[in-house]
Amino acid sequence: MNDYSSVSTAHRICIFFYGMASLGLLIDLFSSPIHRTAGQWVFLGMLLALLIGGHTALAIGASNARPWARAWSIVIAVLYVFAFPLGTFVAVYLFYKCKNPWQGPKHRPSLADAWPISPERP
User: Fold this and answer.
1) Apex 22 CA angle, 90 and 57, nearest 5
2) Distance (Å) of CA 33 to CA 41, 43, 77, 93
3) What single DSSP character describes residue 114?
4) Could you report the per-residue pLDDT of 8-36, keeping only the tens digit for each?
5) To the nearest 5 percent, what fractions of the chain are helix, strand and coil?
6) Which helix (H) or strand (E) element contains residue 51?
């Protein structure tokens, strides 16, 4: 597996965990006896939406071996260092996979490559 594919998978795993946190907050909203203000719920919802959106963009960029996705993955890794213990593990993994520039595929095949079809000549 390429380094950029591994980083994309790591961001997708982060999306999953933030989605689970969102689900937990939604369950807490309807079942908790502690009443929080609407502003608190809006803040938490917007924060999780921002985190999920950011990791989604990074996962897409990393799967295409974009240099900006590598740079932002390093920034995210710096922030994750302080989230001990799981965040530190993810940060070390991201640092390891982002240490060298990514070499993406030179040419991405598409359906347009086969058209127009020209007969082979001897």
Assistant:
1) 55
2) 15, 20, 36, 40
3) G
4) 999 999 999 999 999 998 888 888 888 88
5) 70, 0, 30
6) helix 38-63
Residues 6 or more apart whose CB falls under 8 angstroms from that of 48 comprise 18, 21, 22, 25
* Structure tokens given for 37: 């203000």
Does the model's pTM come out above 0.90?
Answer: no
What does the alpha-carbon distance between residue 12 and residue 105 come to, in Å, rounded to a whole number? 21
Q: What is the pLDDT of residues 84-107, one digit of tens each?
A: 888 999 999 999 999 998 887 655
What are the C-alpha distances in Å from 107 to residues 20, 88, 100, 110, 113?
Answer: 37, 35, 20, 9, 11
Report how far residue 78's alpha carbon sits from residue 38's, in angstroms, rounded to the nearest whole number.
32
What is the C-alpha separation between 82 and 22, in angstroms, rounded?
21
For tokens 């302080």, the residue is 82
Tell me how far apart the alpha carbons of residues 22 and 117 are, in angstroms, rounded to a whole number.
50
Task: Identify residue 33 by its one-letter amino acid code.
Answer: P
Q: Are 15 and 59 in contact (CB under 8 A)?
A: yes
